[in-house]
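My convention is simple: the sequence line spells out the residues, with the fold written below as integer tokens. I include a record here:
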Amino acid sequence: MFFGCKKLSFGYSENKVLKEIDLEIEKGDFIGLVGSNGSGKSTLLKLLCGILLPEEGQIIFNDQILNDKNRLKVGYIFQNPENQIIGVTVEEDVAFGLENIGVPREQMSERIEWALSTVGLTGFNKNDPNTLSGGQKQRLAIASILAMKPEVILMDEPTSMLDPKGRNEIYKVIDRLLQMGETIIIASHHPSDLEKVDKIIALSEGKIVFEGDKEDFYSKRIIETELPFKEKLKRSVSRNLEELVDELCR
């Protein structure tokens, strides 16, 4: 198994949040994780990257149980980028993680420039992160994770605090990461976040209630969720055409 979990369970005190979750992710997958508030989305992502430890079950990465060494290959992007940004300057923020994992000084500048270029922040090296827009802060958070060369990136509602311009900036970065072959799991309530996912995993009351093609998910309406714009438009056009055909055939 490239990445996933087996019989994963977790709870807060008496409240069982996740119950025997089995998940298998292929390299290069782009997965949408959906579910209502309290369904366990954020908890699952934090378990998958090692922020939380499972009560039962295992997290698997490259056929090995997730541990202190290989967990560095799984990056986590918080919903609020300010929870992740700690540097006085943009480049210091990206450098922080590299210093913690012992990247040689001579390699750090190259990695910082590459990561900032990938997220469209070239030239912002000396900027104070507090002066950045919401979209720029989230891109900086992604750059800081990306510089550590993860093989899986987990995104916990990364656009929920952004305006349309900021969301589009994140979508461009995600497109770039997918072109690079990154494996991404994005938890989201926002329909446009899920436009390009390969498949959807839906959680309800701590269990997986759907795993499969996104068109199948929306057609079955397994859990109540808003349709992405393109799907909504397609259905509207289809319905109007059917009405037109009925009228012409009368």
